[in-house]
Amino acid sequence: MLSVRLEKFNDFGEWRNKARQLLAAGMNPSQVVWRVGAEDSGLFEAGDDMLPQPDGPIGSVPSQFIDLARDVIQHADPERFAILYRMLWRLQSEPHILQNAADSVHQMLAKMASAVHRDTHKMRAFVRFRSIIVEGEERYIAWFEPDHYILEANAPFFTRRFSGMHWAIITPYASAFWDKDNLRFGPGGSKKDIPAEGAVEDDWRIYYGAIFNPARLKVSMMKSEMPVKYWRNLPEAERIAPLIRNARQMEQDMIARATTQPPARHLRQKAREVEAPEKTEQFQTLHDVSEAVDACRRCPLYEHATQAVFGEGPPQAQVMFVGEQPGDQEDLQGRPFIGPAGQVFDDAIKNAGIDRSRLYVTNAVKHFKFVPRGKRRIHQKPNTGEIQACRFWLDLEREFVKPKIVVALGATAAQALVGKAVSISSTRGRAIDLEDGAVLIVTNHPSYLLRIPDPETKAREREKFDADLMLIKSMMQTLEK
C-alpha cells in the first residue's frame, strides 16, 4: 500500500500534483491511502518519495471535474482525497461519467460540494467582526467555526468586501489576516482569542431589531436560514427570543400606526415626472446633449454622485462601447473608463490592435451608484428603473453618433441596449441586429476580469475577452473595405 502525504487540508494544487504523479505511475486507487500533515502512516504503507514527476500532461479530465474538485477538497470528510482520485482514475476510461447523475461516486462528490457551498454561504453571512485597538489603531477580529476547510477560499471575498479595514478571521484550523494590502494565513486559534465585546456589537443589535418584521415571522424558516449553532457568535442573536415573544403585540402596534402618507419613492417619482423637461427635439448636436446631462433628475442617483459622466470619442465613430456606469475615478474626473477597469480595457484593445481614439466610449447609466464604506465608495449595480431612466441619454448618443457596431460590456449594458435582461453566455460571440441598423456584440465588462480571484479562471476569461475584441477588430476592418 502506498501512503501519499499532503501538507495541507485543502490545497487543490497540492492534491492535483500528487494525483498526476499517481496516474503517471499507474497506481490504482485501491493501492493508495491518503495522509494529511503529521497523521501517522500504517505499518505496511510505503512512502510516496519514489513517485515520478511527470514532465507534461497526464491524462485528461473535463473542466467540470476541476471545478468540482476545487469545492470537494475543502470538505472535512477525510476520504475526500481518495474519492476524488477514484473519480479521476475512472475518468481516464469513462470520460463522460460526470454526465451520469446516478453514479454513486458522482453523487458523493456532488453532496460534498453542496455542503461546502452551504458552509461558504453561512460564513459570508455570519462572520461578525469586533473592533479592537492595537497600538492606537482600530482593527477588527472575528471568530468563526466552519464545518469544512473553507477559510482560504473565502478570505478573498472578505478582502474585497472589507478592503479598507485591518482585520483577522480566526477559525479552529487556520486564521486569515488582511492589512489593507496583503492577505496572509496562519495557524488556527480558539474563541478565547477574541474580545468578549466589540464597539460594533450594538450596531448589529440595533440593525437586527430594525429589520425584524413581526408580520412575516416564520420561526422554522428563520432557523433554517440562521441555524441555532451560529447564534452564540452573533451579537444580534440575543434579541431573537424577545422579538419572537413580542411579535404579536408588535404586529398589532404596526397596524395601529399604519401610515396615511404615500411612500417617499412615490413622491420622488411624481417629482421626476414634473422635473423631466428634456425633449429630444431640443438637442441639435451631441455637444448639446453632453451639456444637458449633468442636470438630469430622471432617477435619484444624481443626489449623491459628484457629476454625470457622458460619453467620450469621435462624434461619428463607427464603434461604440457601452459599459455599466461610471466608477469612483470616473465620477471624480468626469470621464468614462479611466479607473482600474478602464486600464484593463485600454490594455485589451491595444493588444487587439484597436485605436481607442477611434472609439466612442460611454455607459448605460451616467451617474455613479455606490454605498459608502468608511472612506471608500463601493460600486453598487444599478437597478432596472435606473437603467431605463438613463436610456434616454444613451439613445441620444446612438442617434447622434450613429455607430455601425455597438459593444455591450456586461449584462447591464446589454439590457440597456436591447430593452430586456439578457445573459452574456447566451449572446456572446454572435452579432445581434439592432433596430437602427447597427450590430450589437455582447461581452464581459473589464471589471469582471478584475474580480476573478483564481489565476487560471482569470486567464481563461481574459482569453475570451481578447477573442471578442479580435472579432470586433475584424468587423472594423470589414467596414473600412
Description of the molecule:
This is Type-4 uracil-DNA glycosylase. InterPro entries: DNA_repair_put (IPR023875), DUF4130 (IPR025404), UDG_Type-4/5 (IPR051536), Ura-DNA_glyco_family4 (IPR005273), Uracil-DNA_glycosylase-like (IPR005122), Uracil-DNA_glycosylase-like_sf (IPR036895). This protein has helices at residues 12-25, 63-72, 80-91, 104-126, 151-161, 201-211, 219-225, 240-245, 247-256, 264-274, 286-292, 328-333, 340-351, 384-401, 411-418, 424-427, 446-451, 455-480; strands at residues 2-6, 32-36, 130-134, 137-143, 167-170, 174-178, 183-187, 319-323, 359-363, 370-373, 376-379, 405-409, 432-433, 439-443. The protein is of the alpha/beta class. It has four domains: 2-109, no CATH class; 127-193, no CATH class; 201-256, no CATH class; 267-480, Uracil-DNA glycosylase-like domain (Uracil-DNA Glycosylase, subunit E, 3-Layer(aba) Sandwich). A hairpin with a 5-residue loop joins strand 13 and strand 14. Mean pLDDT is 85; it is low at 271-277.
